[in-house]
Amino acid sequence: MSQRIPAPTAVALLVTLLSAPLTSSGHDGPHPATDLLSQQIEAAPADAGLYISRAYSYLESGHWAAAFADLDFAEALAGAVVEADLHRARAYHWWAMNSADEALATARRERSCTHLDRFLDAHPQHAEAAGLLERLEALRDDPCR
To answer: What is the mean pLDDT of residues 42-46?
Structure first.
């Protein structure tokens, strides 16, 4: 059973994503939304959507370990493994796009494909996931699926 992200949390995620630069060097400080999201998490620690939002904020500033830790925690809270796969697929793709080392980028694209495959098995008509699959396959020698 999947858990829907509450509308206020979804709006916070959208604002976070739209207000941030598209790429990150990984050397910047935390994204400005991170502190705000951390305060919201303190007030509502059982809200999985807030952890997902903060994970994207960490991704924006290149704090990969913190982002994946928040995704893991959100998954544990919500118990929605399949939905977490889409977030992980996005995160690994983003990490690969920001990797200077091609071997690491390739490994991260592989991880992205693994999570994306699992998500698409459950949601074969998901438009955003299909678009991510298309982008990933354009960067790979072999198809994800």
So the answer is: 95
